[in-house]
């Protein structure tokens, strides 16, 4: 599982709208579904095939905070155990080094 986290402090007029439109554009590219800024700020969950977009909003106090979580099946993971991806670790071969005498 790969996890990417970004945190932005938005500065300037309309900066949050620009950031949300950028996230919406990226999501449209990977999900083939258009998301509005209002949907990304809604605190709702959206399912698209086997993908999910979960949105969170903390807007009771300033600063307002929003989160968008995108999850999808890993196309590279082929082994599955009990519905969860199986982690595979490769043991690297170690070279034996001999000191020079």
Instruction: Provide the structure class.
Output: alpha+beta
Quick one: overall form?
A: globular
**E-strand count:** 5
Mean pLDDT over the full residue set: 77
User: Termini, distance in Å?
Assistant: 46 Å
Largest sheet: 3 strands, antiparallel
- Report low-confidence residues grouped into runs of 5 or more: 86-101
Q: Would you kindly provide a written description of the structure presented here, covering whatever features stand out?
A:
The chain has two helices and five strands, in the order ααβββββ. It is α+β, with helices and mostly antiparallel strands. The protein has one domain. Strands 1-2-3 form a three-stranded antiparallel β-sheet, with no helix packed on it. The protein is globular and about 40 Å long. Mean pLDDT is 77; it is low at 86-101.
Summarize the structure.
The chain is an alpha+beta fold. It has helices at residues 15-31, 37-40, and strands at 45-48, 51-58, 65-71, 80-81, 84-85.
């Amino acid at each position: 599982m790969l996890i990417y986290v970004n945190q932005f402090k938005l500065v300037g007029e309309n900066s949050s709208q620009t950031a949300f439109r950028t996230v919406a554009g990226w999501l449209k590219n990977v999900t083939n579904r258009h998301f509005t800024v209002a949907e990304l700020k809604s605190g709702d969950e959206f399912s698209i095939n086997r993908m999910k977009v979960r949105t969170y909003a903390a807007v009771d106090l300033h600063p307002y905070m929003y989160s968008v979580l995108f999850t999808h099946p890993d196309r590279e993971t082929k082994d599955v155990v009990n519905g969860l991806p199986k982690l595979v670790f490769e043991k690297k071969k170690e070279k034996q080094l001999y000191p020079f005498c």
